[in-house]
Design brief:
TusA-like; TusA-like_sf; alpha+beta; 4 strands; 2 helices
Length: 77
């Protein structure tokens, strides 16, 4: 599983990094995105949907860290 660590980064950087990871991934790959910017809770799911990918898991971890698990279901250009 590829991990995108956006802890300590604020909008729009987590979205930029998540998008780049999705663009560089192959169909079928799983990406874990970690962020602690509260805006990411809404921004990342919107990005995933916009790019046609699948958000398979979301959870709030300790210390305000948000964890998103995304499955790449189609190529992103």
């Amino acid at each position: 599983m590829k991990q995108v660590d956006c802890i300590g980064l604020y909008c729009p950087e987590p979205v930029f990094r998540a998008r780049k990871a999705m663009e560089e991934s192959e169909v079928g790959e799983i990406i874990e995105i970690l962020a602690d910017d509260p805006a990411a809770e809404s921004d990342i799911p919107v990005l995933v949907k916009k790019l046609g990918q699948e958000l398979v898991e979301f959870e709030k971890l300790e210390d305000g860290v948000l964890r998103f698990v995304v499955k790449i279901v189609k190529e992103v250009r």
